[in-house]
Amino acid sequence: MSSRAPTVDIIRPLEHGIARNHFSVLGEPPERRLLAWRDRVGHIIDVVPSRSDLEKPFQASIDRFQVGDLVFTDCRSDLMMLERSQARISTDQVRDFVFHVFLKGGVENVSVRASQRDSGPLPASILALDMNQPVRMQRLACRVLTFFVPGELVQKVFPDPEAIHGRMLHASMPLVPLIIDHVATLGGRIATMSAAEADGAIRAAAELLVTAFGRQAGLSGDTRAAARAAMFAQVRRYIQAHLTESNLSPENVLNALGLPRPTLYRLFQHEGGLGAYIRHLRLRRAADELVRYSHVTVIEIAYGLGFKSASDFTRAFRRAYDMAPQDFRALASSRLQSR
Fold first, then answer.
1. Any idea of the CA torsion for 281, 286, 291, 292, to the nearest 10 degrees?
2. Same domain, 286 and 333
3. Could you list the residue range(s) of the whole structural domain that residue 194 is in?
4. Could you tell me which of 142, 154, 226, 313 has the fewest CB atoms within 10 Å of its CB?
5. Residue 103 pLDDT more than 50?
6. For residue 105, which of 79, 83, 135 has the smallest C-alpha distance?
7. Is position 61 within any domain?
8. How many whole angstroms separate alpha carbon 229 and alpha carbon 217?
9. For the chain, how big is the Rg over CA atoms in Å?
């Protein structure tokens, strides 16, 4: 019979309707702790350890609070590499918008789509993610408080909520000190709050976070911002409606909508440009169709989404997801079978 203490994973309802789950790796032997953590958070994101990582001491714990459809977590952990791949996304149902607020430590080397976000000279203090899009990042030893919020709240500021993915805020930016103070207070008090108090505090924090990212993107704060948000929504609708047409391009969008070129280009600068945004949406649609329609050939999917040749599609897909479309389909299929 093993003398090892069990991993701590306690679920207990708090008073007033708040459910709390506590998990710690302390019950595991040192060589198993990182793997135990990977197993615990694997339903949300993959921990990607190197051989040397597995040989190092590792500490991590998390408290998860759920109030109705809102989830708030308080996590302390050592450095790790995290990844949510497109193949993973195509085979699970996690679709939340997530805000990571770092009280200690931070996040670096955040890669989304086929590019890397520059976190600046210091690690980011707040990171926004759309769990329906791939990401890879290095999370430093930290204490991080995380909010899982519904898309309709994000959409109040971002006409295209997906545009918030990978955005980062630093401690010196407007509203960030206020947000960190509010979130730290919430983390210290949530265990004693009523469900109504916790619901209000979590929603207030989420609204502050979305507002801060909206100001960074120029989508909130004044009449001009409202006009930019409306323009963003107009462009998004047009692109979605014409995504399968081979002649869809930035020039085509400009001509069709009659919008100011400089303003439109600035609006999509954070996405790598309007052309990159169109390509990103096409590749995401392609990844989804490769999994959903296994009987449809790769070339049919490519032509159906406006790519001019199979080779163009394969090169773009490989740049975005680090594998060929055929390999992606096989990987997603194996994931589904293992589930």
1. 80
2. yes
3. 8-216
4. 226
5. yes
6. 79
7. yes
8. 10
9. 21
Supply 314's token pair.
Answer: 């394969």
Both tokens assigned to 29? 């032997």
What's phi and psi for 163, nearest 5 deg?
Answer: -70, -10
pLDDT at 285 over 60: yes
pLDDT digits (tens, 9 = 90+) for 158-177: 877 888 999 999 988 878 98
**Residue 7's pLDDT band (cuts 50, 70, 90):** very low
Distances (CA, A) of 86 to 81, 133, 295, 334: 17, 7, 20, 14
Instruction: Specify whether the CB–CB gap between 46 and 38 falls below 8 A.
Output: yes
CB atoms inside a 10 Å sphere around CB 1: 3
* Three-state DSSP class for residue 83: strand
Are 102 and 122 within 8 A, CB to CB?
Answer: no
Using one digit for the tens of pLDDT, what is the confidence trace for 74-95? 999 999 999 998 888 888 888 8
**CA 174 to chain CA mean position, Å:** 22
User: Which residue(s) pair with 82 in the sheet?
Assistant: 47, 137
Span 232-268, pLDDT tens digits: 888 888 998 999 998 999 999 999 988 888 888 888 8
Task: Report the relative pairing of strands 70-77 and 19-24 from DSSP bridges.
Answer: unpaired
In the chain, the number of structural domains is: 2
Tokens representing residue 221 in the block: 């704060």
Give the pTM: 0.76
Does residue 3 form part of some domain? no
DSSP string, 40-52: HHTTT-EE---HH
- Contact of 117 with 110, CB cutoff 8 Å: yes
**The pLDDT of residue 24:** 97
92 phi/psi in degrees, rounded to 5: -130, 180
Q: Which two tokens stand for residue 338?
A: 């293992």
Classify residue 258 by its DSSP letter.
T
Quick check: 182 and 208 in contact, CB under 8 A? Answer: yes
Residue 124 has what DSSP assignment? B
Looking at the domain assignment, is residue 2 inside a domain? no
Phi then psi for residue 30, to 5 deg, are: -50, -40
CATH at 45: 2.60.120.10
